[in-house]
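pinned: reference chain
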Amino acid sequence: MKKKIRLLFSLCCIVTAVRAGNEPFSASARSNAMGGTGITLTDMFAVFNNQASMAFVKDVTAGIFTERRFMMSELGYHAGGVVLPTRSGVFGLSAAYAGFDVYNEKKAGLSYARLFSKHISGGIQFDYLGTSIAEYGNAAAFTIEAGLLVKITDKFSTGAHVFNPVRVNAGFADNKIPTTLKLGVSYEASDKVWLAAEAKKDIDKAAQFCAGIEYRMIDAFHLRAGFQTNPAMYTFGAGINIQQLRIDLATTYHQVLGVSPQIAVSYAFAKKK
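pinned: its structure tokens
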């Protein structure tokens, strides 16, 4: 058990260096390949990044994501979700698990998004957050997150997102779950090039900036790259589209901790005509 506790301490130090406990991960390999700039992406993984963007999803779509952070199984992150468009708006379900038996975090979300006009949408999500720590037990908390997406033109979009605005406690002593804010823009420079940039802020930490590019070589194959600050990381990836099936590969690179390979697979159940 002492060995496990020492391992837990070491892993917590690593995790704290890159994110706070219960801070939301990005569960989109496409977004992560472009530096983590996913706030204006209007695919099913919006259920993890910016619920407002779900409003532009037209088909029922399900997807899964997995990441081995810094090639350590103890820092694995696994997530899955589904987006369901209806006449009353778009509903989403999501679930995620990070960690291992000694320390792990769980998240489940129920979200809703709708269009306010042809170019403006909003979304909200109710979250369950669970934390398990060996020797300390389990804790649970409930919070919300919400977003806004504005398509200023057909090619230029901007979005905003807030997570945990009420600063709930994680359930262990006075351990507050972080409140994070994101603001981003994207620009479709041509039929082949898509650019994005975001600023992210944990209200207790310095801001983080990220930017990325997607190059659509052909409809079925896209290349992506990006970077982010605080901590500094480079990102790379590719996307493969086979009709309704989409496979996204990505990795981030930290100069000390190494690479974090990721894969996401999603399938859109096209409506019958």
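why pinned: The mean pLDDT is 90. DSSP finds three helices and 14 strands in the chain.
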